[in-house]
Amino acid sequence: MPDAYYSVPPLGATRSAPPEPALADRLRRFPAGTHITIRGLSKTFAGTPVYDNFDLDIPKGKIVSVFGPNGCGKSTLINMISGILPYDRGQILFDGKEAHETRIGYVFQNYREAVFPWMRAIDNIRYPLQYLGIPKGERQARLDRLIESFEVQFDLNAYPYQMSGGQQQLVSIMRALVVDPEVLFLDEPFSALDYEMVMFLRGRLQKVLTERQVTTLLVSHDLDEAVLLADEVLLLTKRPTQVAERLHFDAARPRTADTSVSDDFIRVKSRALEVFQREVRK
Ligand SMILES: Nc1ncnc2c1ncn2[C@@H]1O[C@H](COP(=O)(O)OP(=O)(O)OP(=O)(O)O)[C@@H](O)[C@H]1O
């Protein structure tokens, strides 16, 4: 563990049982700039442990990509952190709070199932705002700001069936961001889209995330994408899954196709590939 560990005030009110003393102590120690602390996380599917006593610190306001062997538990990890999937043991805190006390956005790979087909694009995006209890005028202002940030070029009064796959995924990304999330989870958000759309969405998303400094966890099967978008690449081992290595990538933003031919990019990607190949051979 690095030296720079900081004590935090007593943990905030949590819904789950208080952690056992050893875990509570581990929860109070994390590097400066941490947003999410994960301690002692365990999850078993049908008798097979996917995570066993897993610890991780996720920095605030950064984009972290999660990359690892097939089936190692990338989606399981972000689903547990985001509160979608229950875990067997352990604790996950967001600045001392639990998931249900945190504004969270989630973008699924399968946009066709994620957008509401009976609602126009604009109503899909607006939908979560009704649960935030903010005045109507402010809701509209938020929506307008978001539309402006993404420089949306198509008609937001269209229904999903009238839109391309990329446009539908953009709608689901905007719906996740309209709540002004503290943390955004993206599970393979671009894998079903054509390359032109992927480049467009990567560019827009990077711009918005950098402006808003949203803590972001991105699962990607595409190593180029995992490195290109990330401040940090989290490389996982095979099951039971641990952190194999964490790689920092601090190229200037916005990152474009040119970034992916830079020396720095090639260095980080080569190291990631080396670690990945070592892990899959184990
Ligand atoms: N609901 C479930 N019931 C049983 N097993 C599950 C369930 N969800 C996931 N698993 C298993 O847990 C392991 C991790 O799954 P997960 O989808 O998180 O991996 P992943 O790294 O995201 O996979 P991939 O690389 O294929 O996208 C896999 O072996 C998967 O079959």
Automatic annotation (TrEMBL):
Q: Does the keyword ATP-binding apply?
A: yes
Question: Where is each ABC transporter domain found?
Answer: 36-263
Instruction: Cite the InterPro entries for this sequence.
Output: AAA+_ATPase (IPR003593), ABC_transporter-like_ATP-bd (IPR003439), ABC_transporter_ATP-bind (IPR050166), P-loop_NTPase (IPR027417)
Q: Which Pfam families match?
A: ABC_tran
- The superkingdom listed in its UniProt entry is Bacteria
The alphabetical list of record keywords is: ATP-binding, Cell membrane, Membrane, Nucleotide-binding, Transport
Which protein, by its recorded name, is this? Answer: ABC transporter ATP-binding protein
What is the organism lineage in this UniProt record? Bacteria, Pseudomonadati, Pseudomonadota, Betaproteobacteria, Rhodocyclales
